[in-house]
Amino acid sequence: MSVETREARQPWILLSPALGAVALLLFVPLVFIAVYSFWLRTATGADQVGFFLDNWAEALTDEFYRDILLNTLKIAAITTLVCALMGYPAAYFIARSKGNKAVLLLLLMLPFWISYIIRTMSWINILGVSGAVNWLLTGLGIVSEPVQMLYNETTVILGLVHFLLPFMVLNVFVSLDGIDTTLEDAANSLGATKWQAFLQVTLPLSLPGLAAGGLLCFVLGAGTYITPLVLGGPTDAMFANLVFEAIITQLNWPLGSALSLMLLAVLGALVLIYNRYLGMAQLMKGLG
């Protein structure tokens, strides 16, 4: 074996454990799900092995699934926008802080040490009929009886923002922290105000991090089911809740597999569109 061939194979040899783990834990289960989606659940509850398109026909033609999918994308988009509006100032503050940057980052990471389910359910104690907000409102005499603030689309978005905001802040912070602050000083020395220097220098250079955070928040938000399950009402289900309902409640694995692949295809298409117009190179630049 020549030296050139050995050097060409060396990266693949080093990557083989990681690639093997990805293939075993991701692609192999995905193949099983794809095969399952073409099976058929019979009236007796047993799965009929074969190649049937009934599950896909139901998933693609039923307006119920289409409306839930569109609502899921809408909620994910609103959540991403709110995370961007709230996360960018926080990330900018952390990136420009002097002396306490590590403490601020530690505080930002603290929510990850608490279970996502516990963080979501904590909103029940905050916004519930007997929660802290209603206790305060009734105690101050602002309202005469508790206000129903839970189990609607607004609380679902609130819970998702609570969950996803640290991801946005971290991505934007990494991008802002890599910007040379002397560029802003140079803009100021040339007559630009601080606001003009931010708009024309800092903001454009930080857009890759903002885009990376937006993509991450959108995909994670569209694929969640815990938040709408805990904080949403009967009409606020997201598409992942349909997958959960089909597989766990109805034990209809073939239909649930088809629905999960449908959601995966839609989110994958959105990632490809992002790659087409923004480029994964810019994404990696924002993360690096």
From TrEMBL:
The keyword Transport applies. Residues 69-274 form the ABC transmembrane type-1 domain. It is found in: Cell membrane. Coiled coil: none annotated. Keywords: Cell membrane, Membrane, Transmembrane, Transmembrane helix, Transport. InterPro entries: MetI-like, MetI-like_sf. It is a multi-pass membrane protein. Belongs to the binding-protein-dependent transport system permease family. CysTW subfamily. This is Spermidine/putrescine transport system permease protein. It comes from Rhodovulum iodosum.
